[in-house]
Amino acid sequence: MSSSANSNGSSPNAVSPDRPVFALVDCNNFYASCEKLFDPRLKTRPVVVLSNNDGCVVARSAEVKALGIPMGVPWFQLQAQARKHGIVACSSNYALYADMSNRVVEVLSSFSPKIEVYSIDESFLDFTGFERQGYTSYGAEIRQRVADWLGLAVCVGIGTSKTLAKLANHCAKKSHAGADGVCDFTVMSEPALVQLFARIVVGEVWGVGRQITARLEAMGIKTVLQLRDANPETIRSRFSVVLERTVRELRGISCLDLQEVDPDKQQIMSSRSFGAVIYELADLEEAVASYIAKAAEKLRAQDSLAGAVQVTSGPTFSNRRCRSTNGR
Amino acid sequence: MLESAALFGPGIVVPMPHAPRLALPLDTVKISAGFPSPAADYEDKRLDINDYLVRNPVSTFFFPVEGDSMQGAEIFDGDILVVDKSIRPRHGLVVVAFVNGERLVKRLYRRAGRVALIAENPSYPALEIHEGMELEVWGVVVGKFKRFVT
Question: Does the ipTM surpass 0.90?
Answer without folding.
Answer: no
